[in-house]
Amino acid sequence: MSTNDRVLFFDTTLRDGEQSPGCTMHHAEKLQFAQQLVRLGVDIIEAGFPIASTGDFESVRAIAKEIGTPDGPVIAALARCKRDDVETAARAIEPAKKNRIHTFLATSDLHLEAKLRITREQAKEQAGEMVRLARTYTDNVEFSAEDATRSDLEFLISIVEIAIEAGATTINLPDTVGYTTPVEYKALFETMHARVENADKVIFSTHCHDDLGMATANALAGVLGGARQVEVTINGIGERAGNAALEEVAAAMMVRRDKFKFSNGIVMNQIAPTSQMLGEMISFGCAPNKAVVGKNAFAHESGIHQHGVLANPLTYEIMTPESVGVTANKIVLGKHSGRRALEHRLAELGHTLTRDDIDEVYTRFTELADRKKSIYDQDLLALLPTRV
Ligand code: KIV
Ligand code: ZN
């Protein structure tokens, strides 16, 4: 595999994630979480948006100092295309051995007119100037064309060329409002590679929001189109419906290596611990049915599924729970469960029953399961005949 086949993981949990409702983290939590991101093997940590507040500045600087070691990840900070932002970001990331200024400017007419009130020409000038300024502080500069997926293609190409000419090393094409589709997003990267001058000198990046539930699919499509960086968050947290989830993108690349022939640095068995740590730090964990890290992701209640998984987990699991750091699959006993799962659990509890005893306990179990939503081990033990 050549270096061109490596996909960089840019984690923005501490920036895009942390700025969304219910996701505020304290200084010490951010540091602890950044240390976990190192164990997880991410390539770039976007530590925050230093101009936003003194607290954000201090956290980015502390992360840069403590985590930004020579063997550690790149520490990035966000900055609008404004002198103050860029200079503040530069000061915050300065202690990191490998650092990056990530500067962004909206490129859709809607954002230029309604939000920034500047012309396309002014946007081009601002982008070039601020990328050049950022390059005076670090040789690692990312330019994001905010709302790229709703921008005029010709204008997008020209502003990306200006950013590259000014020294940008990574070009991010965010789907800021979760509007694009996999086919369209893949084509966007292919077009950039075909038409942007010096496209081969930079790394293109995805940044996908989940407003239509397509963030992970879009990020993966972007990679197929030529992107070699994915901007993701743990548990998919982020603005509104969130960002593409790191665990989903990484698991898809692991399970479907036949489709995604790329390498990456993610330490897969650190996924569940990272997800859990985040859930404990912010005000919500993920939904039980969340892909890869939800508490039901490896749980089975229906009899048919339990029978299959007990015979061979591959029948209903496309990856092992251990491969993503979950200790084991869970057989959940409830009204949809079958005799085999009951027998299996009772054996685990130390009771190997005869066929007749199992029949008797199973009848009582189904009666109980009709009345009770959760069946605990003590309920099962109470069902055993006294002779057992
Ligand atoms: O969604 C977005 O466009 C962003 C940029 C700041 C990269 O988060
Ligand atoms: Zn975003």
Largest sheet: 8 strands, parallel, barrel
The portion of residues forming beta strands comes to 5-15%
What's the multimeric state? single chain
Q: Give helix and strand order, one letter per element, not per position.
A: EHHEHEHEHHEHEHEHEHHEHEHHH
What is the fold-level CATH name, i.e. the topology of the largest domain? TIM Barrel
Shape: elongated
Word description of this protein:
With 388 residues, this protein is an alpha/beta fold. It folds into two domains: 8-281, TIM Barrel, CATH 3.20.20.70; 299-383, no CATH class. Helix content is 44%, strand content 13%. The chain contains 15 helices and ten strands. The strands form two sheets. Strands 1-2-3-4-5-6-7-8 form an eight-stranded parallel β-barrel, surrounded by seven helices. β6, α8 and β7 (203-208) form a beta-alpha-beta unit. The longest helix is centred in the C-terminal third of the chain and has 17 residues, at 355-371. The protein is elongated, with a radius of gyration of 25 Å. The termini are far apart. 44% of the residues are buried. The structure holds 3-methyl-2-oxobutanoic acid and zinc ion. Zinc ion binds at residues 16, 174, 176, 207, 209, 238-239. Residues 16, 104, 144, 146, 172, 174, 176, 207, 209 line the site of 3-methyl-2-oxobutanoic acid.
